[in-house]
């Protein structure tokens, strides 16, 4: 799949793991995107940059980093620092698959009360997410 920022200065290709969309309600994603960040998982090794002169990385936690275009500010991806997991902004896909489906909401215990989605999703708390990534580190 081809992925691009708003201005087109940062471009890459990636292979989607599936067509499941995740919504993150953590305070960092909400602050960075001015809303909910919606992403899809990719095969981490499939991330291939085509244009990266304006790509910047921000270490947002002990184990995660965010990739964004420093020219237009588009949030492009989040990945573990060890490269074992990566997801991309679903709206940065140049062509979205027709069968995308919102399946999971993470950091649900951080979600403000003033919005909610129409469809039922799997809902993971902050502790659930931390436990998932802690399990991956133990392998």
TrEMBL record:
Residues 1-116 form the CENP-V/GFA domain. Pfam families: GFA (PF04828). GO terms for molecular function: carbon-sulfur lyase activity; metal ion binding. Keywords: Lyase, Metal-binding, Zinc. InterPro entries: CENP-V/GFA (IPR006913), Mss4-like_sf (IPR011057). PANTHER family: CENP-V_GFA DOMAIN-CONTAINING PROTEIN-RELATED (PTHR33337:SF40), GFA DOMAIN-CONTAINING PROTEIN (PTHR33337). This is S-(Hydroxymethyl)glutathione synthase. It comes from Acinetobacter celticus.
């Amino acid at each position: 799949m081809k992925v691009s920022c708003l201005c087109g200065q940062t471009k890459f290709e990636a292979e989607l793991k599936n067509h499941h969309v995740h919504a993150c309600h953590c305070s960092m994603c909400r602050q960075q995107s001015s809303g909910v960040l919606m992403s899809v998982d990719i095969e981490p090794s499939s991330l291939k940059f085509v244009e990266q002169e304006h790509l910047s990385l921000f270490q947002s936690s002990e184990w995660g980093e965010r990739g964004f275009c420093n020219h237009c500010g588009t949030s492009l991806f989040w990945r573990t620092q060890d490269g074992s997991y990566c997801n991309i902004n679903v709206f940065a896909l140049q062509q979205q698959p027709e069968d995308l489906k919102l399946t999971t909401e993470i950091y649900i215990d951080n979600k403000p009360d003033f919005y909610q989605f129409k469809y039922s999703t799997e809902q993971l708390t902050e502790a659930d997410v931390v436990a998932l990534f802690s399990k991956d580190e133990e392998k």
